[in-house]
Amino acid sequence: MNIWEVILAFSVVVLILVSLLSNVLVLICFLYSADIRKQVPGLFILNLTFSNLLMTVLNMPLTLAGIIYKNQPGGDQFCHMVGFLETFLTTNSMLSMAALSIDRWIAVVFPLSYHSKMRYKDAALILSYTWLHSVSFPIVAASLSWVGFHHLYASCTLYNNRSEERTQFVIFSGVFHILSFLLSLVVLCFTYLKVLKVARFHCKRIDVITMQTLVLLVDIHPSVRERCLEEQKRRRQRATKKISTFIGTFILCFAPYVITRLVELSSVVPINSHWGVISKCLAYSKAVSDPFVYSLLRHQYKKTWKDIINKILKRSSINSSALTSESHNQNILQTTE
Fold first, then answer.
1. Residue 287 has pLDDT above 50, yes or no
2. Between 20 and 30 A from 294 (CA), which of 160, 187, 206, 221?
């Protein structure tokens, strides 16, 4: 192994560990908090978390093995199964993010009718479509034997080595990326930009009220005025930062891999094998960022974790105090004897 392969292998190990830990934390929060379970977006986050966990447990270790041994891990049937799951889980993750953006759009743009438009039944229907959409492409690829070990990405994924079927595979791959990556990106951009528009409108209304209040309060201390203006500026930036994070992480993680796959099909530009694995690692990194972007950095999840930690610390303090009192009683008995 050269230095590049060592760095790539180490990067995959880090991705596996961080993804496993962060996604398990999301599951623990979901199981612990009844409030999180009651919310409709919790179903989409749960679906996304399971997809990320399966990707972490099944696909990432095999890519690591592919980098180290530079060969197909396991037999053909095993690789076909892993490639099938990789295609399904990647598409399912993308569509889950699109579903979450639709949920936010309805909640912000139509707040009064949100509970009637986005019920558990509606979320279940969206998830059913997500699964059907996601599973359709790997079924077609598997039936046509277009799944196998691809040395460029050191992974079991969509792959065709038969030149007579090249045109059909190019068409299939193009349609697949349009209806997975591009469709999800369009939905994300449309919904979150609508959300941003509404958020900016509300910020302007609050800014007008704040400025009117500051004008009326002539005797207000300058430091209080400055704090109000700083909060006004932070409020305007908050929504933009969040939406930029949602769309930006999606593009940053998935776009290099999708573009590389499409360029590879064109056979115009030769692709470096190290770049192929890097683009694959970037796609895997979405499983690492999703728990933080959609869950763990939110107030409700932070509160849940504080409750869990406090509960653990209370139990440990109770146990330690019980042990201390027990040992103290034993010492008293020994002295009396």
1. yes
2. 206
C-alpha to C-alpha distance for 50 and 22, rounded to whole angstroms: 12
- Predicted TM-score (pTM) of the model is 0.85
240 near 198, Cβ under 8 Å?
A: no
Phi/psi for 153 (5° steps) reads -110, 0
Render pLDDT for 221-237 as a digit per residue (tens, 0 to 9).
666 666 766 776 676 77
Q: Which ranges of the chain does DSSP label H, i.e. alpha helix?
A: 3-32, 34-38, 41-54, 60-69, 76-109, 114-117, 120-143, 166-177, 183-216, 222-266, 273-291, 299-336
Distances (CA, A) of 266 to 51, 261, 272: 30, 9, 15
Answer whether residue 335 shows pLDDT above 50. no
DSSP assigned state of 158 = E
Q: Two tokens at 248? A: 């930006």
H-helix or E-strand spanning residue 157: strand 155-158
Contact of 277 with 62, CB cutoff 8 Å: no
